[in-house]
Amino acid sequence: MKIKNICCIGAGYVGGPTMAVVAQKCPNIKVTIVDINAARIAAWNDEDLNKLPVFEPGLDEVVKEARGRNLFFSTDIDKAIDEADMIFISVNTPTKTYGKGKGMAADLKYIELCARQIAQVSKTDKIVVEKSTLPVRTASAIKNILENTGNGVNFQILSNPEFLAEGTAVQDLLNPDRVLIGGDTTEAGQKAIQALVDVYANWVPNERILTTNVWSSELSKLTANAFLAQRVSSINAMSELCEKSGADVNEVSKAIGMDSRIGSKFLKASVGFGGSCFQKDILNLVYIAKTYGLTKVADYWEQVIIMNNHQKQRFSDKIVSTLFNTVSGKKITFLGWAFKKDTNDTRESAAIMVADNLLNEQAKVSVYDPKVIEERMYADLDYLNTRTEAKNRELLTVSQDPYEASKDSHAIAVLTEWDEFKTYDWQKIYDNMHKPAFVFDGRGILDVAHLRSIGFECYTIGKG
Ligand code: NAD
Ligand code: UDX
Question: How far apart are CA 459 and CA 452, in angstroms?
Answer without folding.
Answer: 10
